[in-house]
Write a structure and sequence with these properties.
The chain has 239 residues and is α+β, with helices and mostly antiparallel strands. It has a single domain, classed as Fumarylacetoacetate hydrolase, domain 2, CATH 3.90.850. It is 15% helix and 32% strand. It contains five helices and 18 strands. The protein has helices spanning 42-47, 121-130, 135-138, 152-155, 184-194; strands at 19-21, 28-30, 34-38, 58-62, 67-69, 74-75, 83-85, 87-93, 109-116, 119-120, 144-146, 150-151, 162-167, 170-176, 202-204, 212-213, 219-224, 230-235. The strands form five sheets. A six-stranded mixed sheet has the order 4-3-15-8-9-12. A five-stranded mixed sheet has the order 6-18-17-13-14, with no helix packed on it. Strands 10-7-16 form a three-stranded antiparallel sheet. The longest helix has 11 residues, at 184-194. It is globular. The protein starts with 18 loop residues before the first strand and ends with a strand. The structure holds manganese (II) ion (MN).
Length: 239
């Protein structure tokens, strides 16, 4: 078989690598993949009509370039009339690996951030009812706003902290990380049996109850005690 020829250029320009900010630094965290956990708080499983004693958490993904920097306007997406917020703890992976053990999992974490797993709820319900994929409900453009990552050195490993989200001045979500069904080490261990984790991976760990609709003009503010607060507006798209 002939040697593979050396090509000099791409036929389309490679886009810059998506990245997330690092708290207290000019450094950038280069994003490799975005993994998400669904159904990881019992109260949220119930509000979605499920039974947390029968349904285990699940994984889905978003494209890396769905990340939106803190403070950046998010356009109301097309093809939905029920666009929802989901505040989540985001884990940033600093050291890769497959089949990571629960005991070793936290050594793979670079840091933590606040994220919003934006969701086209109407398309998710339709996909669920028809047994179809979740991509159009979850993995759309600008669907992953997140605040700066705090390093483990800065913040440790938060396990008992308030997680909340408000729309304009109204508190919509108000819970605690201690209610996660799968803990962060358990998520990393389980996820790494499906995919080899790489430095630069982000994991959105699931949302507590209180999810609800957003409309153009809303300001979303979301926090986890000890981490930078995330804030962004929802803006109408001019066509
Ligand atoms: Mn979510």
């Amino acid at each position: 078989m002939a040697d593979r020829p050396m090509y000099a250029s791409y036929v389309s320009s490679p886009l810059p690598r998506p990245w997330a900010a690092v708290h207290g630094s000019d450094d950038r965290f280069a994003v490799h993949r975005i993994y998400c956990v669904g159904r990881n708080y019992a109260d949220h499983v119930r509000e979605m009509g499920g039974d947390p004693s029968r349904e285990t958490p699940i994984f889905f993904t978003k494209a890396a370039d769905a990340v939106v920097a803190n403070g950046t306007d998010v356009p109301y997406p097309p093809r939905t009339t029920n666009f929802h917020h989901e505040v989540e703890l985001v884990v940033a992976i600093g050291k890769g690996g497959a089949n990571i053990t629960v005991d070793d999992a936290l050594s793979h974490v670079y840091g933590y951030a606040v994220g919003n797993d934006l969701t086209r709820r109407d398309l998710q319900a339709e996909a669920r009812d028809k047994g179809q994929p979740w991509d159009s409900a979850k993995a759309f453009d600008n669907s992953a706003p997140m605040a700066a990552i705090h390093t483990v050195e800065q913040v440790g490993h938060p396990t008992d902290a308030r997680i909340w989200l408000k729309v304009n001045d109204e508190i919509r979500q108000d819970s605690n990380l201690s209610k996660l069904i799968w803990s962060v080490p358990e998520i990393i261990a389980e996820l790494s049996t499906f995919w080899r984790l790489q430095p630069g991976d982000l994991i959105f760990t699931g949302t507590p109850d209180g999810v609800g609709p957003l409309v153009a003009g809303d300001t979303v503010t979301a926090g986890i005690y000890g981490l930078d607060t995330l804030q962004h507006r929802i803006v109408a798209v001019s066509v």
